[in-house]
Specification:
Blueprint: E1 10-17, E2 20-27, H1 38-49, H2 58-62, H3 82-87
Antiparallel strand pairs: 1-2
């Protein structure tokens, strides 16, 4: 999927409500993929590596882009996710 593809710019949805046919034109919310913080991506990749996220979804999470203004946090530690193991998630 490319955000520049014309086929993904809008969707025509129809529904029946109270016996009337309703047509709605839905437009793309973003012109480019939304970005997440580096910290969030690191956490998601940790969850992928720990197999908390199913393997079929790893490619999606690895492909997420991060914001350019992110500043590396030297105190950030992946062991903050230790609570996930304790909760058996």
């Amino acid at each position: 999927m490319s955000y520049s593809s014309k086929e993904y710019r809008s969707i025509k949805a129809t529904a029946t409500m109270a016996g009337r046919k309703v047509i709605a034109n839905l437009f793309a919310a973003y012109n480019e993929p939304p970005k997440i913080s580096t910290k969030n991506k690191r956490g998601l990749l940790y969850l992928c590596g720990s197999n908390y996220i199913p393997i079929q979804h790893h490619h999606f999470y690895k492909g997420l882009t991060t914001t350019a203004e992110d500043v590396e946090d030297p105190e950030y530690n992946l062991f903050k996710f230790e609570w996930l193991r304790k909760c058996n998630i």
